[in-house]
Amino acid sequence: MAGIPDDVSVDSEMKAPSGSSTADSNGPPRISGGVTGRRVAPKLTGEDAVAYLKAVKEVFSDRRDIYERFLEVMRDFKTHRICTVDVIAKVKELFEGHNNLIMGFNTFLPEGIEISLDEDVPPKKPAEFREAIDFVNKIKERFQDDDNRVYKAFLDILNKYRKEDKPITEVYLEVAALFSDQPDLLDEFTKFLPDANHV
User: Fold this and answer.
1) At 72, is the pLDDT very low, low, confident or very high (cuts 50, 70, 90)?
2) Whether the predicted model's global pTM rises above the 0.70 cut
3) How far apart are the first and last CA of the chain?
Protein backbone atom coordinates (compact mmCIF):
# COMPACT_ATOMS: atom_id res chain seq x y z
CA MET A 1 0.00 0.00 0.00
CA ALA A 2 1.23 3.45 -0.77
CA GLY A 3 1.17 6.23 1.76
CA ILE A 4 3.61 8.38 3.64
CA PRO A 5 6.83 6.37 3.89
CA ASP A 6 7.59 5.12 7.41
CA ASP A 7 10.77 7.18 7.60
CA VAL A 8 8.81 10.43 7.21
CA SER A 9 7.38 11.96 10.35
CA VAL A 10 4.01 13.62 9.90
CA ASP A 11 4.30 16.67 12.11
CA SER A 12 3.53 20.34 11.78
CA GLU A 13 7.12 21.42 11.20
CA MET A 14 8.04 19.45 8.09
CA LYS A 15 11.20 20.66 6.39
CA ALA A 16 12.06 19.68 2.84
CA PRO A 17 15.50 18.19 2.33
CA SER A 18 17.91 20.39 0.41
CA GLY A 19 17.49 20.07 -3.33
CA SER A 20 13.93 18.78 -3.07
CA SER A 21 11.23 19.93 -5.41
CA THR A 22 8.57 22.43 -4.52
CA ALA A 23 5.02 23.08 -5.60
CA ASP A 24 4.11 24.93 -8.73
CA SER A 25 0.94 26.95 -8.39
CA ASN A 26 0.01 25.99 -11.97
CA GLY A 27 -0.09 22.23 -11.40
CA PRO A 28 0.25 19.34 -8.98
CA PRO A 29 3.30 19.13 -6.74
CA ARG A 30 6.19 17.58 -8.60
CA ILE A 31 7.52 14.32 -7.31
CA SER A 32 10.67 12.34 -8.05
CA GLY A 33 11.55 12.13 -11.71
CA GLY A 34 9.43 15.12 -12.64
CA VAL A 35 6.21 13.10 -12.72
CA THR A 36 3.15 14.96 -11.55
CA GLY A 37 0.00 13.91 -9.75
CA ARG A 38 0.03 10.15 -10.27
CA ARG A 39 2.08 7.41 -8.71
CA VAL A 40 4.35 5.80 -11.26
CA ALA A 41 7.24 4.56 -9.15
CA PRO A 42 6.54 1.47 -7.02
CA LYS A 43 7.80 3.14 -3.83
CA LEU A 44 7.55 6.68 -2.58
CA THR A 45 10.63 8.36 -1.25
CA GLY A 46 10.76 10.49 1.85
CA GLU A 47 11.55 13.43 -0.41
CA ASP A 48 8.26 12.88 -2.29
CA ALA A 49 6.27 13.02 0.93
CA VAL A 50 8.17 16.03 2.26
CA ALA A 51 7.76 17.89 -1.05
CA TYR A 52 4.01 17.28 -1.01
CA LEU A 53 3.68 18.35 2.64
CA LYS A 54 5.74 21.46 1.90
CA ALA A 55 3.42 22.28 -1.04
CA VAL A 56 0.37 21.94 1.21
CA LYS A 57 1.99 24.13 3.85
CA GLU A 58 2.84 26.81 1.28
CA VAL A 59 -0.64 26.83 -0.28
CA PHE A 60 -2.28 27.13 3.13
CA SER A 61 0.31 29.42 4.73
CA ASP A 62 -2.52 31.77 5.71
CA ARG A 63 -4.78 28.89 6.87
CA ARG A 64 -2.64 26.96 9.36
CA ASP A 65 -5.76 25.15 10.64
CA ILE A 66 -6.23 23.40 7.27
CA TYR A 67 -2.60 22.32 7.20
CA GLU A 68 -2.87 20.97 10.77
CA ARG A 69 -6.12 19.12 9.95
CA PHE A 70 -4.42 17.60 6.89
CA LEU A 71 -1.53 16.37 9.06
CA GLU A 72 -4.05 14.79 11.42
CA VAL A 73 -5.75 13.03 8.48
CA MET A 74 -2.35 11.78 7.29
CA ARG A 75 -1.46 10.43 10.74
CA ASP A 76 -4.81 8.63 10.88
CA PHE A 77 -4.30 7.23 7.36
CA LYS A 78 -0.72 6.14 8.07
CA THR A 79 -1.79 4.31 11.24
CA HIS A 80 -4.85 2.79 9.50
CA ARG A 81 -7.37 4.57 11.73
CA ILE A 82 -9.22 5.72 8.62
CA CYS A 83 -9.71 3.87 5.36
CA THR A 84 -8.73 5.00 1.89
CA VAL A 85 -12.26 6.08 0.93
CA ASP A 86 -12.47 8.28 4.04
CA VAL A 87 -9.06 9.86 3.48
CA ILE A 88 -10.03 10.68 -0.11
CA ALA A 89 -13.22 12.38 1.08
CA LYS A 90 -11.34 14.37 3.73
CA VAL A 91 -8.60 15.46 1.33
CA LYS A 92 -11.16 16.59 -1.25
CA GLU A 93 -13.01 18.54 1.45
CA LEU A 94 -9.89 20.16 2.93
CA PHE A 95 -8.35 21.04 -0.44
CA GLU A 96 -11.56 22.14 -2.17
CA GLY A 97 -10.66 24.54 -4.97
CA HIS A 98 -7.02 23.36 -5.01
CA ASN A 99 -7.20 20.65 -7.65
CA ASN A 100 -3.42 20.48 -7.95
CA LEU A 101 -3.17 19.32 -4.32
CA ILE A 102 -6.12 16.94 -4.68
CA MET A 103 -4.66 15.28 -7.76
CA GLY A 104 -1.17 15.30 -6.22
CA PHE A 105 -2.53 13.22 -3.34
CA ASN A 106 -2.98 10.29 -5.75
CA THR A 107 0.72 9.68 -5.18
CA PHE A 108 -0.04 8.42 -1.67
CA LEU A 109 -2.99 6.18 -2.50
CA PRO A 110 -2.76 2.41 -2.95
CA GLU A 111 -2.25 1.24 -6.51
CA GLY A 112 -5.55 0.95 -8.36
CA ILE A 113 -7.27 3.67 -6.35
CA GLU A 114 -7.25 7.21 -7.64
CA ILE A 115 -8.98 10.47 -6.80
CA SER A 116 -11.12 11.72 -9.63
CA LEU A 117 -12.24 15.31 -9.90
CA ASP A 118 -15.27 14.14 -11.88
CA GLU A 119 -17.97 14.08 -9.21
CA ASP A 120 -20.05 11.62 -11.26
CA VAL A 121 -17.41 8.91 -10.84
CA PRO A 122 -16.89 8.02 -7.18
CA PRO A 123 -13.54 6.56 -6.12
CA LYS A 124 -13.35 2.79 -6.24
CA LYS A 125 -14.80 1.57 -2.98
CA PRO A 126 -13.19 -1.36 -1.26
CA ALA A 127 -15.44 -4.19 -0.17
CA GLU A 128 -17.37 -3.39 2.95
CA PHE A 129 -15.73 -4.28 6.25
CA ARG A 130 -18.59 -6.59 7.24
CA GLU A 131 -18.23 -8.51 3.96
CA ALA A 132 -14.51 -8.96 4.62
CA ILE A 133 -15.14 -10.28 8.13
CA ASP A 134 -17.80 -12.69 6.79
CA PHE A 135 -15.39 -13.91 4.11
CA VAL A 136 -12.60 -14.57 6.63
CA ASN A 137 -15.07 -16.41 8.89
CA LYS A 138 -16.24 -18.50 5.91
CA ILE A 139 -12.62 -19.58 5.31
CA LYS A 140 -12.15 -20.40 8.99
CA GLU A 141 -15.32 -22.51 9.09
CA ARG A 142 -14.60 -24.32 5.82
CA PHE A 143 -11.12 -25.40 6.89
CA GLN A 144 -11.72 -26.11 10.57
CA ASP A 145 -11.24 -29.86 10.00
CA ASP A 146 -7.60 -29.41 9.00
CA ASP A 147 -6.71 -27.53 12.20
CA ASN A 148 -7.27 -24.28 10.30
CA ARG A 149 -4.02 -24.82 8.34
CA VAL A 150 -5.45 -23.16 5.21
CA TYR A 151 -7.07 -20.41 7.27
CA LYS A 152 -3.79 -19.64 9.03
CA ALA A 153 -1.88 -19.72 5.73
CA PHE A 154 -4.42 -17.27 4.24
CA LEU A 155 -3.97 -14.87 7.18
CA ASP A 156 -0.20 -15.21 6.84
CA ILE A 157 -0.38 -14.23 3.14
CA LEU A 158 -2.46 -11.15 4.01
CA ASN A 159 -0.12 -10.13 6.82
CA LYS A 160 2.91 -10.43 4.55
CA TYR A 161 1.14 -8.27 1.96
CA ARG A 162 0.42 -5.62 4.57
CA LYS A 163 3.84 -5.67 6.24
CA GLU A 164 6.13 -6.34 3.27
CA ASP A 165 4.26 -4.34 0.62
CA LYS A 166 4.04 -7.36 -1.70
CA PRO A 167 2.63 -6.78 -5.19
CA ILE A 168 -1.06 -7.66 -5.34
CA THR A 169 -0.49 -10.08 -8.22
CA GLU A 170 1.87 -12.10 -6.02
CA VAL A 171 -0.73 -12.17 -3.26
CA TYR A 172 -3.38 -13.30 -5.74
CA LEU A 173 -1.16 -16.12 -7.02
CA GLU A 174 -0.44 -17.35 -3.49
CA VAL A 175 -4.13 -17.29 -2.58
CA ALA A 176 -5.00 -19.00 -5.89
CA ALA A 177 -2.59 -21.83 -5.02
CA LEU A 178 -4.04 -22.06 -1.52
CA PHE A 179 -7.63 -22.16 -2.81
CA SER A 180 -6.85 -24.30 -5.88
CA ASP A 181 -9.70 -26.70 -5.06
CA GLN A 182 -12.04 -23.93 -3.83
CA PRO A 183 -12.87 -21.78 -6.90
CA ASP A 184 -15.78 -20.08 -5.13
CA LEU A 185 -13.45 -18.74 -2.43
CA LEU A 186 -10.93 -17.55 -4.99
CA ASP A 187 -13.67 -15.80 -6.93
CA GLU A 188 -14.99 -14.12 -3.78
CA PHE A 189 -11.45 -13.13 -2.76
CA THR A 190 -10.95 -11.14 -5.98
CA LYS A 191 -13.60 -8.60 -4.99
CA PHE A 192 -11.40 -7.59 -2.04
CA LEU A 193 -8.39 -6.82 -4.23
CA PRO A 194 -7.49 -3.16 -4.77
CA ASP A 195 -7.69 -3.51 -8.55
CA ALA A 196 -9.24 -6.83 -9.52
CA ASN A 197 -9.19 -5.94 -13.23
CA HIS A 198 -5.42 -6.21 -13.45
CA VAL A 199 -4.82 -9.54 -11.68
Assistant:
1) very high
2) no
3) 16
